[in-house]
């Protein structure tokens, strides 16, 4: 059986802007992957609202620094065959990642290193890595999300190319969410149920070719 760790933020958790709340379990993209790949694959969904690639958020009650928590996740769930790294949107907040695609890409590169440098105490193999560049932000009338992300729309459009460069440098797979789904204007950041499922189908297709 193959094991896939889906390491992400609110898009992985399944944040539903319409509520606000959480999408039904079946609509979340890790669940779609599990359904598409079947019983021979074990999917571990590890999403946290507000998680960054490698930056602190001192306003949050939980630790949102993805680089600090990832080794614990790797140790908890090994052996792992594939780690999907789906982070970067929250790096566009100025009080966390500084608000640029460059810093998000640097953070995702750090996460790749964390996966590859992790030493299993049981001698398990190093997992493959698939990075997912987040969908671009869109304008919104929501005042809170506009304040958090409204100034980063143009930067978010650079995430696809920035992550593609990292994938080429690190020799890992890359899927651009912006090629398959679009954020809802309800808050300008998150995916509705249909787009969340669409992302899951795209990732499942990419993983099928690997397996």
From TrEMBL:
SUPFAM superfamilies (UniProt xref): SGNH hydrolase
Extract the InterPro entries matched here.
SGNH_hydro (IPR013830), SGNH_hydro_sf (IPR036514)
In which domain of life is the source organism classified? Bacteria
What is any Pfam family matched here? Lipase_GDSL_2
> Which terms does the record give in the GO molecular function aspect?
hydrolase activity, acting on ester bonds
- All copies of the SGNH hydrolase-type esterase domain together span 6-191
Q: What is this protein called?
A: Arylesterase
């Amino acid at each position: 059986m193959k094991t896939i760790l889906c390491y992400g933020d609110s898009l992985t958790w399944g944040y539903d802007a319409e509520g606000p709340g959480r999408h039904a379990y079946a609509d979340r993209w890790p669940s779609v992957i599990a359904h598409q790949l079947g019983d021979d694959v074990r999917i571990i969904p590890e999403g946290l609202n507000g998680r960054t690639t490698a930056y602190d958020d001192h306003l949050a009650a939980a630790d949102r620094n993805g680089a600090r928590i990832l080794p614990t996740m790797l140790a908890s769930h090994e052996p792992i065959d594939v780690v999907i790294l789906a982070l970067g949107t929250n790096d566009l907040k100025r009080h966390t990642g500084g608000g640029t695609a460059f810093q998000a890409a640097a953070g995702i590169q750090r996460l790749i290193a964390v996966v590859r440098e992790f030493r299993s105490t049981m001698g398990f193999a190093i997992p493959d890595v698939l990075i997912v560049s987040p969908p671009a932000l869109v304008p919104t009338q929501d005042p809170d999300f506009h304040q958090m992300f409204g100034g980063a729309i143009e930067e978010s459009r650079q995430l696809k190319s920035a992550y593609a460069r990292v994938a080429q440098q690190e020799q890992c797979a890359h899927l651009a969410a912006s090629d398959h789904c679009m954020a809802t204007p309800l808050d300008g950041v998150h995916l509705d149920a249909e787009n969340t499922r669409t992302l899951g189908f795209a990732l499942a297709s990419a993983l099928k070719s690997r397996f």
